[in-house]
Amino acid sequence: MGTKTVAWRAWFIWSIATFFYLYEYIQRVIPGTIVDDLMSSYSANAAAIGNMAAFYFYSYALLQLPVGLLADHFGPKRPLFWACFLCVAGCFAFSQSDTLAAAKASRFLIGSGSAFAYLCCLRLSVNWFSVERFSLVC
């Protein structure tokens, strides 16, 4: 396998993980953009909606250390696959939630999957790129 093939594959693999990071970033900020709709849908005040949105960050912060250990132990591929699945399942659950408690649970699920995005991108950068390119891809 030539170096051009390896370089192309490295950028392709890294791009997939980067698009997942972009997706989870959108999931992170979306409640702030639809806050009025959420308040009317759940008949809740701004504090309740803010608390619901914060469930994303609760799980995200809680899982940072375990995610790093999982990414180092299993490599980034398997954890990233399951993280994508968690994010999509949480997003679907959020779209179908009719109570504030269900919305909080689904935001927690989205945050759990999102915790893998940046750390797995870093792990892929270490695995696939040279030291000279690391600062470019992080």
Break the fold down into its secondary structure elements and pairings:
Elements: H1 3-33, H2 35-42, H3 46-62, H4 64-74, H5 77-96, H6 100-128, H7 131-137
Helix pairs in contact: 1-5, 1-6, 3-6, 4-5, 4-6, 5-6
Please provide a written account of the structure.
The protein starts with a helix and ends with a helix. Helix content is 89%, strand content 0%. It is built from 7 helices and no strands. Helix 4 packs across helix 5 (77-96) and helix 4 packs across helix 6. The chain is an all-alpha fold and 138 residues long.
Task: Give structural attributes.
single chain; 138 residues; mainly alpha; 7 helices; 89% helix
Strand content: under 5%
Q: Tell me the major beta sheet.
A: none
Mean pLDDT: 91
Low-confidence stretches: none
Question: How many strands appear in the DSSP assignment?
Answer: 0
Q: Helix/strand-derived class?
A: mainly alpha
Instruction: Give the fraction of residues assigned to helices.
Output: over 70%
The termini sit apart by 26 Å
Spell the H/E element sequence.
HHHHHHH
Shape: elongated
**Count of helical stretches:** 7
Rg from Cα: 17 Å
Task: Briefly say what this structure is.
The protein has 138 residues and is an all-alpha fold. It is built from 7 helices and no strands.
